[in-house]
Write a structure and sequence with these properties.
This protein is an alpha/beta fold. The protein contains five helices and seven strands. Helix content is 27%, strand content 27%. Strand 2, helix 3 and strand 3 (93-97) form a beta-alpha-beta unit.
Length: 183
């Protein structure tokens, strides 16, 4: 696993020991960042269920100004720290060893891009999107929430402040994009 683009392109990233995390495949990550790169210049980024930290690191490599990494697993937190040190991105980062939902319910910041690649088949993706919809100030006016899930998990959500604007399917991975309504 490597950083696929930007200022840290080619830097190797460590994997979380064991089989508890499933990092996004390089071809999906490349396609995603080719799509959103224009949004990343100076962006405030939130990486939920960060795992290895690869999505937030990729965002910083492509011009993001800061990233908050949220992860509850101790081994994953240690891996993210190693990856931030390896890529020399620690100064632009905050690593939080915490529950994603606790952080979201108590956060007073606003983000331009929010990534979520939660554990599959636990409906965490829907809970996360609904939590953000209940607190729309978490997302800047022109911000984007990007969730990765298995296509079998997908169901349309009834949201009052967010709207689904796009889906992209890559084999057994589905990326779903949300914006604030009316934007």
């Amino acid at each position: 696993m490597r950083v696929v683009s930007g200022s840290r392109k080619g830097k190797p990233l460590f994997s979380v020991p064991g089989d508890t995390t499933r990092p996004m495949l390089g071809r999906i990550k490349t396609a995603l960042f080719d799509t959103i790169r224009p949004l990343l210049a100076g962006a405030q980024v939130l990486d939920c269920f960060a795992g290895t930290g690869q999505l937030g690191i990729e965002a910083l490599s492509n011009g993001g100004s800061s990233c908050v990494f949220l992860e509850s697993g101790s081994a994953a937190v240690a891996t993210i720290k190693k990856n931030l040190e390896t890529t020399n991105l620690m100064e632009q980062s905050q690593l939080r060893h915490t529950d994603v939902f606790t952080y979201l319910r108590n956060c007073s910041r606003s983000f331009n891009v929010i990534f979520a690649d939660p554990p599959q088949f636990k409906n965490l993706w829907a809970e996360l999107v609904q939590t953000i919809a209940e607190r729309p100030q978490l997302l800047s006016d022109d911000g984007l929430v990007i969730v990765k899930l298995d296509p079998e998990e997908y169901e349309p959500l009834s949201l009052t402040t967010l709207e689904e604007v796009q889906q992209r399917r890559y084999g057994n991975s589905l990326l779903v994009f949300f914006r604030r309504q009316g934007r």
